[in-house]
Amino acid sequence: MENNLKKQIRNNPWVDVPLADDVKRILKRQTVADTYYKRGDGQATKDLKHVEAQHRKWVNDIIDLSEFPYCYFTNGATDALHYWLLTEDREYQYYQGEYEYPMMIKPGHEINQLIDPDKVLYVSVPSACDGNFVELQDINCPVILDCTYVSSTNIQKINTPKNTEQVMFSFSKGFGLVGQRVGLVYTKEPHKTLHTLKELENWNYGGVRTIDLIMSNYTVDDMWNIHRAKQIKICNEYDFTPSDCYFLSTSIAPYYKRRRRTTSNDAARLCLTSLTKW
Ligand SMILES: Cc1ncc(COP(=O)(O)O)c(C=O)c1O
Question: Which parts of 104-242 are beta strand (E)?
């Protein structure tokens, strides 16, 4: 690999997301004016119910949401994180190397392995630490589960610890919709803030249509199936280990040391997005 590309990968602390031409072409079918609904007349609720039913099935081979009867549209998983932390009065913990944004808006407690049973655990699966699935075993504390990377991977089961309170989803990663701000959050109890907003039909109607468009054209593992070969090719070329998420990889080479996110292993998280045409 050219030295400047290696440097570019080493210098990028973020995850960039690919937007494939095919997804772009499908997005052109959506017209903003289609969702000019009168708030309160039920049309937006009808759209959201349809999307919710479709989404539950869409992800079901990966995660069973039957214990989470409430579903809300959010402006990306970020919005779900805001609504969670805005109303969270308990202390929370997270594994070293976890997605950093929640800690930027409200400090939590970093942990390595040992979980404090009295604190809420915020955890991403697949993990933002390296783009890989992780098993959540023997976790009894309340859990906020961030599944933002679902739709960037193949089908692997995610188990929900028994006290999981919220499960968050995003369409930013798998489909490159980072600027569209589209996501869903599922809860066991009515959400402290989003429930009232939902009763008032107060959410982004266009965003719901975008989710519908994506799910009607792609299965949850289509992006992985389409792009996995490219990921493997790049990884072979650059001596990286492909992550479960198709545009991420890891490397234990000391050159990439600054991209290591945890002291529990030597794997640096490396983003492949800029290395090819997806
Ligand atoms: C684990 C995790 N959660 C949430 C987000 C934010 O996602 P969104 O674009 O849906 O707000 C990211 C983005 O990097 C992430 O890695």
Answer: 109-111, 120-124, 143-146, 164-170, 183-187, 241-242
Distance of CA 158 to the CA centre of its chain: 13
The three-class DSSP label of residue 12 is coil
34/56 Cα distance (integer angstroms) = 24
DSSP class of residue 276? S
**What angle, 0 to 180 degrees and rounded to 10, lies between the N-to-C axes of helices 205-217 and 43-59?**
40
- Ligand 1 neighbourhood includes 180 CB (under 6 angstroms): no
Q: How far is the CA of 77 from the centre of ligand 1 (A)?
A: 6
* Centre of ligand 1 from the C-alpha of residue 181, in Å: 10
Q: Which residue(s) pair with 276 in the sheet?
A: none
What the block records as the tokens of 54 is 């479709």
Q: In 3D, which of 204, 125, 203 has the Cα closest to residue 159? A: 125
Ligand 1: nearest atom to the Cα of 124: 1
The answer, as to whether pTM is greater than 0.85, is: yes
Instruction: Express each pLDDT in 94-123 by its tens digit.
Output: 999 999 999 999 999 999 989 999 999 999
pLDDT in tens, 15-42: 999 999 999 999 999 999 999 999 999 9
Q: Domains in the chain and their CATH numbers? A: 3-22+221-275 (no CATH), 37-217 (3.40.640.10)
Q: Does ligand 1 lie within 6 Å of residue 242's CB atom?
A: no
Is the CB of 128 inside a 6 Å radius of any atom of ligand 1? yes
The closest alpha carbon to 211, from 158, 156, 170, belongs to 170
Cα 142 to Cα 19, 22, 278, distances in angstroms:
35, 40, 38
